[in-house]
Specification:
The chain has 441 residues and is an alpha/beta fold. It folds into 3 domains: 9-150, Response regulator (Rossmann fold), CATH 3.40.50; 161-234, no CATH class; 253-433, no CATH class. 40% of the residues lie in helices and 20% in strands.
């Protein structure tokens, strides 16, 4: 197993002298390690992002306890130290008693809801003579993970190491645009971040340093992908030689469908809250005064005449507005705007957004709706999970409008990620500018 960098390794042992050599060996490998003598030293907020935890079963006060008590205490310490959003975790239990490790594993799986892999290892098996040996540590962990079919943890560690390396290289490259050091370097970099902010924001002026730096980071982030791709191409997987990616479907159709829908949700949208309206926002339109509008969109997506009334009332169909305002309109302040009213301090400037009507469809309704016209007139996001259901988002590019969108008074359900949004925007531009028939059949 490849060891994680950037302080994603933790060691808990109430006898520092017994693991001092381990910490030293890991440090020589460039692996930053968090060390705790016991639960009294744990941070106030649980850790996240830890991939490897070395945990002693015999912490202070439990040296003479029975196996069940030790196992229960280990699980309680794990829950206190590691947060629920941690992600996959390998726990190395310092023990040569398999039955104690199995008991601890059972308690841990009850206490924490994580992809958790517990591997019992005898300290003596990780040493050459009296000293820890890093290759033996990695070999022991890899062997135990291979036995439990948990090599995918190593894939996570490889990718996260590549991300860490990429950010370090990107920071070094950007910092290199400024000659000198100390105050002069800081002055030049301050100017550099300001220029990045202005390039990102175009004609939109931001007032606070917080807003300006966040804006500059959007452009700064664009340089990360090429560095990350290069780092991934160079990485060497620390997994067993027998490990293969699973190329056959899961046990049941339902399991395979659930995996597909969750992966697509990961690729299609984010649910993070934000105050302003941004391109890609999808708002639910709950109160529809004109049911004919819903029926028209349904008809566009292939609903039959005798189905329109029932489908328009269905709880499996939600009418939505997808914000498709082009990024250049946002950056250069080219959206239609209504200025604030004269002599009215409470009046604010409002901006118009471009949007397309769409249907968020789940349940049996998915089988009723396809497309009745050419694919060029639609944007499709198929088979993704939302609110515990498998859904489709059907965007009708015949129905594009412009209006003031107030995020505070509307129900934002999620925000499309850049790639699916760009696909819908390009189709919308093609539909608006399409000449029509250009050949005879």
């Amino acid at each position: 197993m490849v060891l994680p960098r950037n302080a994603r390794v933790a060691v808990v042992d109430n006898v520092p002298d017994e693991v001092a050599d381990l910490l030293s060996v890991l440090a020589k490998e460039g692996v930053s390690t968090l060390f705790y003598k016991g639960s009294s030293e744990f941070p106030a907020a649980p850790l996240i992002g830890i991939r490897l935890l070395f945990l002693d079963l015999e912490l202070e006060g439990f040296e003479n306890a029975n196996d069940k008590t030790k196992a229960s205490a280990a699980a309680a310490n794990l829950k206190k130290l590691i947060g629920p959003d941690n992600g996959p975790l390998v726990v190395v239990l310092w023990t040569n008693h398999a039955e104690v490790a199995d008991l601890a594993r059972q308690y841990m799986l009850q206490e924490v809801k994580l992809p958790l892999f517990v591997v019992p290892i005898d300290k003596a098996d990780c040493k050459e003579g009296k000293s820890f040996a890093v290759e033996k540590i990695k070999g022991q962990i890899s062997e135990m993970l291979a036995q439990s079919s948990a090599d995918c943890v190593g894939l996570y560690v490889n990718w996260e190491n590549a991300v860490f390396d990429s950010t370090v290289k990107l920071s070094a490259r950007l910092s290199g645009v400024a000659d000198g050091n100390g105050d002069k370097w800081s002055e030049i970099m301050s100017r550099a971040f300001y220029k990045l902010y202005r390039a990102e924001c175009g004609k939109n002026a931001l007032q606070t340093v917080q807003e300006q730096f966040v804006s500059s980071c959007h452009l700064y982030n664009s340089g990360l992908i090429s560095n990350l791709d290069a780092a991934i191409a160079e990485m060497r997987l620390g997994v067993s030689s027998k490990f293969r990616l699973k190329d056959s479907p899961l046990g049941t159709v339902e399991e395979e469908e659930a995996l597909t829908s969750k992966l697509n949700a990961f690729l299609f949208y984010d649910s993070m809250a934000h105050a302003a309206v941004v391109p890609g926002d999808v708002f639910a339109v709950r109160d529809v005064c004109d049911r004919n509008l819903v029926k028209a969109v349904l008809y566009d997506f292939g609903a039959k005449n005798d189905e329109l009334e029932e489908l328009s009332q269905s709880g499996d169909i939600c009418l939505c507005k997808v914000i498709i305002t082009p990024p250049c309109d946002v950056a250069n302040n080219k959206r239609l705007r209504v200025p604030p009213k004269d002599n009215d301090n409470n009046s604010k400037c409002v901006q118009y957004e471009r949007y397309a009507w769409a249907l968020l469809v789940s349940g049996d309704a998915r089988s009723h709706l396809t497309s009745s016209r050419g694919e060029y007139a639609y944007g499709f996001l198929r088979r993704f999970e939302f609110a515990g259901k498998v859904c489709d988002l059907l965007v009708d590019l015949y129905a594009i409008g412009t209006e003031v969108i107030d995020a505070n008074s509307m129900d934002r359900i999620f925000t499309l990620k850049p790639i699916p949004l760009a696909d819908i925007q390009s189709k919308a531009a093609n539909q608006l500018n399409r000449i029509g028939i250009c050949a005879v059949k």
